[in-house]
Amino acid sequence: MAKSFSYDFYFNSSPTKKSVGDVENEENILVLAPFTKRPKINFGKIKINDSANRSLVLINSQTNDLDVVISSEELKINNIELKIEKGKSTTLKLTWQPNRPGNFNFVLQIEAINIPKLKFVVSAFGVCCEPTTKKCIRKPLKSIQTSENKQNSSFENTKKLAKPIVFDDANSKENLA
Q: Keywords assigned by UniProt (predicted)?
């Protein structure tokens, strides 16, 4: 008698939908090793002269300590030198403050000085928009009154509104109450 085996396989071939998460808290990690995936730093959408802060974690997976030089013209980083011990990591804080509207793409260059050919180019991008201005909802006044006319008209209005109450005797006071 032969035994039969049945295996059930399920495949999900529909594409996964990428969720729009919190860009500000997104973790950007770069492992300093050849052929590693480079992160793309998203600064998101900000207004002119506002600033966006992101962080980049650099992990040294080499067997030696690394002397690293970091530079980027757009982020105003000029040859910052770091020493990352073997098996350790360091966090790099990045700030972008655009001064004109538009879509921006820029790069962050990371190079290990003591290991030849260990260079990385990390791309970053962001959108800068102009601040929104509120439109005036109130209509302008049609005529301008002088301060003397305003005082006279307000005094006349109070005369018309206020009428004195005169009590003749005690009985009329009780009728009002």
A: Cytoplasm
